[in-house]
């Protein structure tokens, strides 16, 4: 299975650079990989490949969910409890 996991665009005057990152999950999910295709306004392109993309994405999402809980939800609950006690 192939998933588009990221897009990035950079502009500077008339120069444009775009990159798309794809997550490729194979039959063995541990051996998944990410492929990034970068193109620029001159028609040049570059392809880079990295192993272990699924584990990196899972770690990133876990870190984002923990950060959301720690800095927003937990903080709101503490604030609501302290304002309700007054």
UniProtKB/TrEMBL annotation:
Keywords: Membrane, Transmembrane, Transmembrane helix. The keyword Membrane applies. The chain crosses the membrane at residues 53-73. It comes from the Bacteria. This is Uncharacterized protein. It comes from Undibacterium macrobrachii.
